[in-house]
Amino acid sequence: MSTTLNQPVTVVKGVGEEKAKDLKLLGIQTVQDLIEYYPYRYEDYRLKDLSEVKHEERVTVAGKVHTEPVVRYFGKRKSRLSVRVLVGSLLITAVFFNRAFVKKQLTLGDEITLTGKWDQHRMTLTVSEYKKGVQENSKPFEPVYSVAGKMTVKALKKMIYEAVRQFGDAIEENLPEQFLIQYKLLPKIEAIKRLHYPANFEHAKQARRRIVYEEFLLFQLKMQAFRKHQREQAMGTTHVVDHQQVEEFKKQLPFPLTGAQQRVVTEIINDMTSPHRMNRLLQGDVGSGKTVVAAICMFTSVKAGFQAALMVPTEILAEQHVESLKQLLEPHGLTVELLSGSLKGKKRTERLERIANGEVDVVVGTHALIQDDVYFHKLGLVITDEQHRFGVEQRRVLRDKGENPDVLFMTATPIPRTLAISVFGDMDVSIIDEMPAGRKEIETYWAKHDMLDRVLSFIEKEIEKGRQAYVICPLIEESEKLDVQNAIDVHAILQQHFKSVRVGLMHGRLHPDEKDQVMEDFAENKSQILVSTTVVEVGVNVPNATMMVIYDAERFGVSQLHQLRGRVGRGEHQSYCILLADPKSEVGKERMRMMTETNDGFELSQKDLELRGPGDFFGQKQSGLPDFKVADVVHDYRALEVARDDASNLVHSDSFWKDEQYLPLRMYLEEEGVLSGEKLD
Ligand code: ADP
Ligand code: MG
Prior knowledge:
It contains 23 helices and 21 strands. By secondary structure, the chain is of the alpha/beta class. Among the domains are: 1-42 and 143-171, DNA polymerase, domain 1; 47-136, CATH 2.40.50.140; 260-273 and 289-411, P-loop containing nucleotide triphosphate hydrolases (Rossmann fold, 3-Layer(aba) Sandwich), CATH 3.40.50.300; 443-598, P-loop containing nucleotide triphosphate hydrolases (Rossmann fold, 3-Layer(aba) Sandwich). Strands 11-12-10-13-14-9-15 form a seven-stranded parallel sheet, sandwiched between helices. Strands 16-21-20-17-19-18 form a six-stranded parallel sheet, with helices on both faces. It starts with 16 loop residues before the first helix and ends in a 10-residue tail after the last helix. The protein binds adenosine-5'-diphosphate and magnesium ion. The site of magnesium ion has 5 residues, from helix 10. The site of magnesium ion (MG) has 5 residues, from helix 10.
């Protein structure tokens, strides 16, 4: 960063201590911060035709006062003035809040210009600014900034203007010329000026395009450089693979692998063979068959002389994985063992010993795997299932249990491609994008709670056919206790309703042995309905279950609903998912509709992301996304892809590390600590 631009804001003319304090509230401390404090939107004062304006859009229109204004007061300070205004051929209502004085200024028949937010359904404009007469604003296009403290937008604009005037010359171009030419991007200083003082919409758009690309390129450069550094510096485990043996193993599986499974297995094994540390994400929708992929990789690792570990978020899942892995691996002479929290005392000590001396080849477990007293003899491969449920720290601890084992993260939460390349830009990604043949689409219905009776008779019919059903209970956020109570209540109601069938009950407060029993009963069709909290969300596999009923579905995230739905549709029978929901908001309704319209997890997550924005998607902190000033990973996705490819090409080219023209970018990487490897985890 240039020293000039790095000076405190107080060097800008007209910015004193007082103003500097307010600026600090906005995160502005240096001259550069101030110059790069961009408007978050533009006010468009051009007169519009209301027929072209969308619901809730801000707009400026001209019209004629059609009725006497009416003012209503609320308490001492608050008022609402409404007046009918003829705009073109439309008679609309203009509403002014807390500006009763406007009444005196409006006379029947007057021409006025109004700016505000348009409510298409109520044909109402909530006015923020108005002027007498029909006139376009002298500046039809005005930037709008967020402000804090005592600062006004006007004062802020003035400070920015001063900062640019005094120090604009110090802003250096940081993008290589080749990209400016190739993408017809504005020079940096030009873009900055146009963002602050656009002459028209097109200006602002071009300026924005330039900054978006720059932000993405820098971000991706950092990611790609990390990744390159990591691959080169971080030694992993070199698996010497007997490919013949692996092929034999694949042939003996109970089913042929899908093309996608074949592909990801090759990708992963190639990575394991290389001396670099594997740091790979395996994404595959629920039911796409990740377990068998994990099994093949673990087989490969063990046959190369190592141990492999699989870490999963819940005990139920751990047990289930142990079962399926035993079936797949034991016939080939591998020892598979469970290490869970419920394993105690002498049994635990014994098992730990066998893990430490290498008698156990494959260890499956929950968090119990990362306890201090767990040692491996020679850990070569670590796999985590449902990786998003483990924190970075937990994953690191597990990895440190070996000497740089190769690491594979599996997730069934389809991360929209958009986010995947942002958040996991420093990881390699393998995607299983194909379902095993013969799967039937799950039919999903959205029912209101008052249709519960019909839902119950639907369940009854399925049970008569010999099938089984899951009923997921209302979710009460952050209160496991209430969740449990809900499950108990629903269980009682259903058992009462379905007198002749057995209804199982599963929740987090059960003793591990009880959980096992409940799961086993359901798996063996000793109970036909399983009432549960979300603990069955991940991994559970009971192919005879064909119904998934979810109470209060609007309280769940789309990806969670999709996960739950993935518990059915695992066998030969047609399966159904019923969402009991009375969502209040439009977004909530839209999410229910999305669920009924597609079974594709990737499509769902992409749509959900568009609906919610990236912050909400992961929770702001977890997303790992930097705070872009202008860019938006969802809407500017194409630019992000382009920038990612450019960044990757750059860091892998020799000239990038030598040529003069890339100096600003190299300096950026230096400042970010990427080149020294400081920021590596
Ligand atoms: P997930 O990716 O959700 O972990 P699983 O690994 O549990 O999926 O697989 C779901 C089901 O599909 C399992 O019953 C598994 O045996 C089966 N399966 C996996 N791969 C195939 C395949 N290639 N052909 C047929 N069935 C498969
Ligand atoms: Mg799984």
